[in-house]
Amino acid sequence: MRRWFGVAAAVCVFTSSAVGAEPASGCGVPQDIHDGWAITSADKQGLKTALLCAMDEGIRGGKLANVDDIVVIRHGVLVYESYYDYPHQLNYDATSRHNGYSMTKSVVSLLVGIAMDRGLIKDLDAPIASYLPDYAGLRAWDKDRISLRHLLTMSAGLGTERAPSVSFQYDNVSFQYNNAETELIGAILKKVTGKGVDVLAQENIFAPLGIEDVAWYKSPVGGVPTSSSGLSLRPRDWAKIGQLVLNRGAWDGKQIVSASWIERSTAEHIKTDKAEFGYGYQWWIGHSPDSAGTIEWAAALGFNSQKTIIIPARDMVVVFNAGRESRNMVAPELDLLDRYILPATSRE
């Protein structure tokens, strides 16, 4: 099991006022919209602005990934924020929500951790049928050994033609991404708490983090909030989710979710069908090149290149949003991370 939290980030206290002098003019300068983020210029937090501006110019010139926005947090401070306009497409600014699609799954993972912290979920390896006795299909011979851990790691094999191993030993199962498995996690949370994931997140995550502008898609059948997708937040608020994880579950001096859950959920538990990624508990685990080797990170990922990336070794959170699939359909935002953003932190 590979663990990426080798460096524990300090818990940051956020204020609505800027830190120090106003940021110098230039690319990606954030504006204070009084949403709780402290703001400085990127160079004051050790970033090379020339690289960031080269990235900005490349995106605006159509030579790099067609992202809608990029937000960078360094040492708990908002240091870079840029929004990009495209013809015949909805465009965004700092006050606009952006659909996170499957980044929703990682927020649901935090809710599982909170439920475990409160003793509402006691055993990740208990059969999920014990939580959902009314789901008759879960008692079938090929599903009665499926546990919450399998759902969290996308290894339950639901919705596939293959039958899971009769013994269903965890080490022998394989990763297969499936929205239905996260929907079952949401159903378990509703069973043990009596509340939907939208209400749980509002009470236990959004309110403490000062996230106020929220939309969560609900199924037209029954009005149930979806767990696998559908959460829309401002890019800066997606960054708050990332900072909460970087802070090992703490925010403004309060422990929102235990540090042990953050460590467990963002550790690699299973290999995926994508060579560049591992998977934790609804978090993707990846790495970027560095002069000294590699830099590990965890990320919430969603359709159309939504990414909230937590990079402990650089004390950094990076958010990308996009309203359409990026050029070449090969996650080029990670190229932006590897070629511009991370090198901007280098001391060389």
Q: What is the 3D shape?
A: globular
What is the CATH homologous superfamily assignment of the domain at 102-208 and 256-287? DD-peptidase/beta-lactamase superfamily
CATH class of the domain at 102-208 and 256-287: Alpha Beta
Q: In the CATH classification, which architecture of the domain at 102-208 and 256-287 applies?
A: 3-Layer(aba) Sandwich
| Secondary structure: number of strands | 13
Strand order of the largest sheet: 2-1-13-12-11-10-9-8
Q: What is the share of helical residues?
A: 25-40%
**Total of helices:** 8
How confident is the prediction overall: mean pLDDT?
86
CATH topology of the domain at 102-208 and 256-287: Beta-lactamase
Overall radius of gyration: 20 Å
Sheet with the most strands? 8 strands, antiparallel
Class from helix and strand fractions: alpha+beta
In short, what is this structure?
The chain has 348 residues and is of the alpha+beta class. It is built from eight helices and 13 strands. A hairpin with a 4-residue loop joins strand 9 (278-279) and strand 10.
Describe it for me?
This protein is of the alpha+beta class. Among the domains are: 1-79, no CATH class; 102-208 and 256-287, DD-peptidase/beta-lactamase superfamily (Beta-lactamase), CATH 3.40.710. It is built from 8 helices and 13 strands. The strands form 3 sheets. The chain has an 8-stranded antiparallel beta sheet, sandwiched between helices. A 3-stranded antiparallel beta sheet has the order 3-5-4. A hairpin with a 2-residue loop joins strand 1 and strand 2 (77-83). The protein is globular and about 60 Å long. The protein starts with 48 loop residues before the first helix and ends in a 7-residue tail after the last helix. The model is unreliable at 1-25 and 161-171 (pLDDT under 50). Keywords: Hydrolase, Signal. Residues 1-21 form the signal peptide. One of its GO terms (molecular function) is hydrolase activity. Residues 70-336 form the Beta-lactamase-related domain. This is Serine hydrolase.
